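Summary for the funding panel

The consortium committed to producing paired sequence-structure records for every protein in the target list. Below we show the first two records in order, beginning with the earlier of the two.
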Amino acid sequence: MSFEQGVTVLSGRNATNRTSLLQGIMAALGSDQASLKADSKEGQALLEFGEETYQQTLHRRNGTIVTEGDPYLDDPEIADLFAFLLESNEARQAVARGDDLRDLIMRPVDTNAIKAEIQQLEQRKNQIDSELNELDNLENQLPDLEAKRTRLIDEIEELHDELESAEEELEAANTDVETRREEQSELDEKLNELRDTRSELERVRNRIETERESIEALENEHEDVEADLEELQAGGEANLGRLEAEIETLQTEKNELNEEISQLQRTIQFNEQLLEDPGEFLGGEADNNDGPVTDQLLSDADSETVTCWTCGSSVATDQIETTIDQLQSVYEDRLNERSEINDELEEKRATLNEIEENRSEYQRANRRLESIDEEIERRRDRVEDLTDDREAFTEEITELEAEIDNLETDDSEDILEQHREVNQLEFEIERKESKRDDVEDKIASIEERLDDREGLQDRREKTTEELADLRTRIDQIEDSAVEEFNEHMERLLEILEYSNLERIWIDQTTRDVREGRRKVTKSSFDLKIVRSTDDGAAYEDSINHLSESEREVTGLVFALAGYLVHDVHETVPFMLLDSLEAIDSERIATVVEYFESYAPYLTVALLEEDAQALEGEHETVTEI
């Protein structure tokens, strides 16, 4: 079969392979909701679209149908829900049964992935906030550091002035340099040595002070990390293995339920189609109906019985219908079980994530605590070594001062005092200049760090926007689904003109439910219906009181809302419609033309009398 873009109408009576063709299209697109004829062990669906070819093969193995190949879709779930709108379509059935529509419309959304991404972004934002707070603290230090630098510069200038004066006085007083050259030379040497030793002593003192400040800061951090450890208390470790085992068990149960649900859906679909098109599944084609066996089977198809496809005996159609009802009940039970398992899985995975995150934080804190202890021990050893150096330098200074005292004479007392003054001034200048350089290095380092602030603020703003988008994404999808349904439902009701049916809409509400030990707020979609009496009075009605036609239209509009909200046309440009007989011909034509605006390729299976309303306007296929 070949299809053009737009609407393609498959027109014919029952048992003319129209539904089989739709299932073939679904199979080639990737759906596993297709069936094999009872006498076939294998079948294949092939689709050429554009320049690409897609195919999927169905095999019958151990009483079930398995699929393989290279279909159009890797994951057909969203198309099965909102694009392949056959009679058994879950979206249509959910409306007909009055199920909670919110869970179905949100099923393609990976809420766990969104929550994990939110957690990562929150951690990133907290880290950026911490860095920005650190920059604020550093910026607050700048005024004090700049004032300190200015003060040191002024003090250095004053010391230079004093040194210049002292050197001039020394030069003026040193009138007998030649006669006391040897004494002066030795004295100068000792004074220089004394100055250098004092400089080394001051350097060691500064290092001791710096090391002690670092030790104090590390001890404070040690207390903070210990406090964090007390809060973390890695208490969930004992539950970790149990949770992982429970999650694995629940996942296995879910997989088994998925397989059972899929098998039930195919079985229901197969038996419904058997009732509708019995000749299709009896091993013969339309052009092979001239044999006596085929005549007998087709005769059964026109009566109140159908030939069983498993044993070949005649079975009353009402018995098959009862079986279908029972299977449908089991199918709904399994869907409810899967929903409960999904909720429990989500809760346990969230708990597992919390435990694992707690464990990671606990391990990081322990490693940091060990690192701090090692660093404190190293610095204490360094302080001890520096203390030994300080004592050695102190003793050396005492010895030098004694030697200088021995070299002093009454005649040279003034000159020696002036030498001491000059040496002391030079030492003070060096010390002040060293402090000034340290302050300038700190200022430069802070200013360099502050240059990163704008980039950090941009990152924080972007992260905040991403967080806001993620936190509202689920709400946005829910709001959009409600808006799409209500808008299209209002338009179609106005066009279709159902008598006394005033309005159908989804009312979005929230309710508190218990998940394990926690109470959480969940959104719910409630279908509201308002009718009017002959005298114009309005009253609220329920889905159970809608006519079959009204119910089918509502289900189709809900599926269309999901198709639009999840942009299904970007994933698969095909929409398939079947089993519209409950709607009258004129309204079917209106619905098809309405849906045409949103689906690039719309294929609809109709009875001949229903297709007449669309003939001439769209491509019509009468032979398959």
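The next record, for a separate protein in the list, is shown here:
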Amino acid sequence: MYFNTYRQIEAALKACTGEETVDLGEGGEHADFATPIAFSLAKKQRKAPAAIAAGLVEDLRERLAGTGITVEAAGPYVNFQVSGEYVREAVAAALEPGFGRLPERGERVILEHTSANPNGPLHVGHIRNSIIGDTLARAFRKAGYPLEVHYYVNDMGRQIAIVSWGFSNNPLPAEEGEKPDHHIARVYVAANRAIEADETITEQVDRLMQQIEAGDPETGRRFRSVVSHCLDGFKVTMKNLNVAHDRFVWESDFVRNGDMERVIAKIERLPQAKHDGTLSIDLTECGFEKDYVIRRSDGTSVYAARDLAYHTWKSRNFDRAIDVLGADHKLIGSQLQCTLRLLGERAPEIVIFEFVSLPEGSMSTRAGKFVSADELIAEVTNKAFAEVSERRPELPEEEREGIARAVALAAVRYDIVKISPEKSTVFDWKEALDFERQSGPYVQYSHARACSILEKAGAFERAFTFTDPHEIALAKQIARFPAVIDRVIRELRPHLLAAYARELADQFNTFYRYVPVLKSEGETLQSRLTLVAAAQNTLKEALETLGIDAIRTM
């Protein structure tokens, strides 16, 4: 309903102004839709924007006659209000299973996220990547796209060589019940301390890197073994965060199948290629002062060479590629994009997110200073269990534990995704566990409240008579959901979905506070229960797209 109305207004604006594109958005408190087009027309017509807006109104009213859309000028703005039919149709649409799903699309999309180095457990910083990426993936699927989600496994870098050396020369047995990724971290930290104490170990690590690139089978087996060990731990963590990947793609595969050498051969023929002991690319035309190194003087390739091979494969097999990268990858991400364009390949879109830090400071796996995602989940779950037990002491312990796990997941995922990716954030335990207005549990509670109302009401006949301003405001907020999904995937900004879910919860709770539902009678009761059912379904769909369980009781 939202899209149909938007397109009707947009077409009318284009027809009466002759403009190919028009600026049309939501009108906030004053209107359902509004346009500031009079400002841009003022330069061409040399008239005051308010006069232009007033002149457009009559033409627009004629073009929109019969649609139920009303048009008014408000100074330099033109405002549009929807009809009661819009409200009724919006509520009816929101009752359908899967509400918000957009029509199927043929454009193939690949989304890469997380891809953390397998040298220790995922920490609080890593999971911002995972949660942003997973939320985008859910939004793309909701928007009807065929999607494949990848984790790109770094199994050739120096950090993996250090871990491999540690297992061979300074093995530390796994402790009882220790997750594999935590075991890897202990070995990695110990190996780095050994290197600091004995510089000759660096030569042994360098030799391992040469052997892995040369295709030495024993070195390759050892590297893959330790990386697989770490990934086993990652998969448990990501499952607990409700994060999923379709494929784990190994960096070394692009060396073994020859893709990397083919890309390097193409780079060597570029006019921007520089051969001075190393192989690098002059990217000054893209604004970069430093050369982009592809191969070292000892003949070994750098990570960029394999990354270019991977993205060349993406370019040829998908219509749209998206990478989620931390701010420390901003430079190399831009260099990657520039190089791919020079090679004639499609460059990926990159979502850059700023870091999550702790009140105590930054995190370092090498130094062994981090709060693991596992510790975070365990701590939040314990606190959620205490909160649930205080609120619902009558529930069996097993049920309270289930609710606590769902609430903890909501607290973590929502707290991470609600912040715009380009903004840095300090992860605060207390804020993550705030079960009030700015949290995932608040949205969950609103959904549970709607479920409770419907359960108490029992069976009812659907009706669509809405006259109270709070009813109409809630219905219009519900109608926005498909448009929010569309905007999230167009702009790659998942925090917009988090903001919408909270706003919908606010609108529903305001409606519940001021409009009696179960105490109503007749058609009013049926209509209000119908609206509650539409809100419940929309909250459910929004929560699930955020990767949060839409639990029915809290």
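Regarding this second record: The mean pLDDT is 93. The CA atoms of residues 284 and 334 lie 12 Å apart.
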